[in-house]
């Protein structure tokens, strides 16, 4: 019962955050495009961040931007994306444009000295990622901040999940993310090759980045990738199933579908470790010198992308004690099951700000502001990690015989 009340309270607060007063000179944000995701990913989280004010929005159509600004309480409307970038009052630019426009607008904003929060996936392919994240504008003594908005990595549930993973011991992992078939109409940006569409770009940005974190390395190869092409644009995958080989011999799989049937519950991740020898203390037993304890750990993380609504991390350990001289012997075998939930860092025993009702986006904003203000960022998406996500996606497109998303001119 208490769990249900917490669930209801948390979900109500996610959509109805109480506004906090702002500091004297908060960071001013401008938004490029009246995008669907911006209210959830930035406008709402900004309400509870004292150091963030959304100052302006621009859309390709002025009236659309005006209506959007009115609806979301944004004080200024600019005539173009470039006008946001040129505005000297604006410190930070949020870019929720179609993937194929991320590179161009991120470069323009960074060159104007703006800090950039860039939607996922950062750009269209690996070469664009290298050109962006290794651009000279990001070196020097005080370069602007650039962050790919891989928001799920900022939630304490991800930090907690990773404490149960030993990347070097992972034998296999599978990450899936399906969205229901009615979610995106035929004219959606996800079905436009010229705009960087495709399920691997959209959903694969999550599953691929999760896999290389779990294995602690980018894949050596994508061994196979089956895609279903979208009926709208044959170069855009509507769904994918990819299998990768990782250094050390582990295998990772990922699946995504932009038109999934309702019986598919996602997102989730399954991880299986190889058998590892553990200490008597870790096994919670006493051992003679002739014995050793071995653990095989399996982990399931349900709702890894939006853990704030509801999630569960289930850890299943199987322990065996055998004779060191005979690894096949079984002196004792037992199992242990734990289910862990973690909505704030406090729950994880970590001293870090956060509330159980903070969505991933709010945790992400906290760290983005910390970085801009020159403070420590315990969670972050390194530039090389963003490049690696595109490497994994490109490998899958190549294995599927689909062209890489086009490089910006
Ligand atoms: N972090 C997350 O949870 C999520 C992230 N995303 C990411 O955010 C980005 C935007 O996604 P989403 O909000 O769903 O998309 P929308 O289509 O709602 O928004 C995209 C915006 O891009 C602008 N745009 C500029 N040029 C074009 C063009 N040629 N065709 C279409 N739109 C154009 C439009 O702005 P204008 O108003 O100027 O017309 C539109 O508002 C993507 O990169 C996506 O991967 C998406 C969903 C969730
Ligand atoms: O970022 C996203 O998150 C979840 C999906 O619904 C969506 O397609 C995607 O853009």
Automatic annotation (TrEMBL):
SUPFAM superfamilies in the cross-refs: Glyceraldehyde-3-phosphate dehydrogenase-like, C-terminal domain, NAD(P)-binding Rossmann-fold domains
EC number: 1.1.1.179
Taxonomy, superkingdom: Eukaryota
Catalytic activity: D-xylose + NADP(+) = D-xylono-1,5-lactone + NADPH + H(+)
Gfo/Idh/MocA-like oxidoreductase N-terminal domain: residues covered: 29-132
Pfam families, A to Z: GFO_IDH_MocA, GFO_IDH_MocA_C3
Keyword list, A-Z: Oxidoreductase
Domain GFO/IDH/MocA-like oxidoreductase: 182-261
InterPro entries documented for this protein: Gfo/Idh/MocA-like_OxRdtase_N, Gfo/Idh/MocA_domain, GFO_IDH_MocA-like_dom, NAD(P)-bd_dom_sf
GO molecular function, one term: nucleotide binding
Family the UniProt entry places it in: Belongs to the Gfo/Idh/MocA family.
UniProt protein name: D-xylose 1-dehydrogenase (NADP(+), D-xylono-1,5-lactone-forming)
Organism: Neoarthrinium moseri
Biological classification of the source: Eukaryota, Fungi, Dikarya, Ascomycota, Pezizomycotina
